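job 3f2a | input accepted
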Amino acid sequence: MGRRKLKIQRLEDMKARQAKYSKRKKGILRKAKELSILCDVEVVLLLSSPSGKRTFFVGQDPNCLYNILQKVSNMPFVEREERRAYTMELYEDQVQELKDKLTKKSKILRDWKNPENVKDLNQIKFMEDHLIASLNGLRNRKNQLAMEQQRRQRYLDVGL
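job 3f2a | predicted structure (160 res):
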């Protein structure tokens, strides 16, 4: 059984994101170490987990971080800007995709704040269905909590 291709996109579930990060972090740290050893290159890797925990890896040479920072600081300004522009170009598509998502979500939020401005009947129907589903979820949760509270109260009453 082969692996299936994973669509690379942000995971919405925080637990799934943390689990995926943990697995992939081990892999990228192993690859960084291998690259450092096999190719005799200076590798510095700084990761920040979804929970905010930092992971820092420095290759074989303990002075690696200092050496890299020294090289970058001695690099001509023009070359640093070219490298920065190249890096920004790599992320340009992702940034545009995130901007588009933000625009779409902002419009949805505006619609929810001002439903009288919505002109599309399908959008209003969608909003109504969503509200009904949310209300049903709240009712179910309220009933569940009420039942749990009654059970606790009965338990306390019997225990006294």
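job 3f2a | Residues 118-160 form one domain.
job 3f2a | closed
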